[in-house]
Amino acid sequence: MSGKLQAIRGMNDILPDATPLWQWVERSIASILDAYGYREIRLPIVEQTELFARSIGEVTDIVEKEMYTFPDRNGDSLTLRPEGTAGCVRAAEQHGLLFRQAQRLWYAGPMFRHERPQKGRYRQFHQVGVEAFGMQGPDIDAEVILMSARFWRALGLEGHVRLELNSLGSSEARTRYREELVAWLRAREERLDADSRRRLDSNPLRILDSKDPGTREVLDEAPSLLDCLDAESAAHFSELQAILADSGLEFTLNPRLVRGLDYYGRTVFEWVTDDLGAQGTVCAGGRYDGLVEHLGGKATPAVGFALGLERLLLLLEVTGAARNAQLPETDVYLVAAGEGASSAKIRLAERLRSEVAGIRVECNCEGTGFRSQMKKADRSGARYALILGEDEVRNGEVGVKDLREAGSQVTVPDAEIAGWMARHLGSDARG
């Protein structure tokens, strides 16, 4: 192979300048999940292909065209996970987590789909997923939706996303609606786009999600799924709406809202934005009561959602909400020059990390001159430069220079530097 090695198209590096914002988003979301009693589960990124073929559906675009599937050395067919729910169900069932007990679980990590990369949609992308098992009432549907709404408040995005809600009803109701929809669309087939015509035989409900303008005009007059709901699903959906309204959460009913995966039924929802163009869905989920049984377990009610981190980060940047992020900054940059200063610098850095709670210390270990080190200290973003020269080492002192406010350098006894830094950084001294 000649030339420079490059990342695979659609599988992107996340560089150090970007990771602090990722970490802030992940911490913000994890703290909310913890407050609601959801526990983290960590899942493998490779599963048996059969898991996704059975859960997602053989005739979906994901299974037909988008999965990264390969044989291993034993001849087994394996797949890089395209989504997280199926793997979470597999793990919960395999390890007995669903036996006579409810579970609130969440996970995070990379997913993989072989589709055309574009801004906000990649071949390796990252999701946070939430799954709640063993609870069948609309109150748990409301809980996961209200919890997702809290994410947007924590991230400063509350005014940039809106909630759309629908019910897919029971499998019997969907079958009846599917027949009615297909018959209605067949009579207008010439007005549908090519992809929608193909889906008439394989997955007609997905036509409701078409972005083609001509097809959307046809759909505006199509039968509504909400008019075909069975009585039990209609009551469930009505109570969910009442709980959300009582909680003060605004939402819009969207009878065209469906999910691209076969295992969903009853409640489905999306958080959408107008700030990202065509890639407007930030978070999507719903109820999938039949999936556990379909994968070999006992019938278990379940509801969950997934949000794409790349798209969420893009929304933070586009809206300016990223400016509100509380990103970590270097507090102290250690500069050392002269005999004995290098060892003293390392000792001091280690002592500060041990004795000052939460302090972030960066050492210059490049062996450059004093002036060059001070320039690097300023570029590091640190508030203070701690200076150790031969005089300071000999006298048991540390030079302290405030890099963000003009002023003269002060000298602090080495024995008192931890307490001095704790006071000036608003931290706690542990030593």
Structure description:
This protein is α+β, with helices and mostly antiparallel strands and 431 residues long. It contains 15 helices and 16 strands. It starts with 18 loop residues before the first helix and ends in a 6-residue tail after the last helix.
Question: Which labels suit this protein?
Answer:
431 residues, 8-stranded mixed β-sheet, 5-stranded mixed β-sheet, elongated
Approximate helicity band:
25-40%
- Unreliable parts: none
Q: Evaluate the radius of gyration.
A: 28 Å
Mean pLDDT: 91
C-alpha geometry: elongated
The chain-level structural class is alpha+beta
Largest sheet, in brief, is:
8 strands, mixed
Strand content: 15-25%
- Given the structure, what is the number of helices? 15
First-last Cα distance = 55 Å
Q: What strand order characterises the main sheet?
A: 1-5-6-11-10-9-7-8
Q: Care to count the β-strands?
A: 16
Task: Please outline the helices and strands.
Blueprint: H1 19-35, E1 39-40, E2 46-48, H2 49-56, H3 61-66, E3 68-71, E4 77-80, H4 85-94, E5 103-112, E6 124-133, H5 138-155, E7 162-167, H6 171-186, H7 194-202, H8 213-219, H9 231-246, E8 252-253, E9 267-272, E10 281-287, H10 291-294, E11 302-308, H11 309-319, E12 332-336, H12 341-355, E13 361-363, H13 370-379, E14 384-388, H14 390-395, E15 397-402, E16 410-413, H15 417-425
Helix pairs in contact: 1-5, 5-9
